[in-house]
Amino acid sequence: MTQRSKPGQNVSLITAQDVFEVCGEIDDAKVVAIVEAQPSYEELEEAAAWIAEEGDVPREDRHPLSGKAAVVYEILATELEPDTERE
Q: Using CA atoms, how far apart are residues 83 and 41, in angstroms rounded to an integer?
């Protein structure tokens, strides 16, 4: 996988489009939270693979997620609670 970067930047930042490509159609609030967490593309892919339970090794036998991959996993795994304040 190639690193994604914008001209003039040393750090590779993901975009909302990257999140949709890797995670599919997810809630916009989750996309914003993921982009704001600033994971690398690889960390995004790793978290998405955990959510999808991809790979040959069961989740409990894999190394634990850490860093921003763990943050992205938590965002993806969390169910957004509906806004009950609306009438």
A: 31
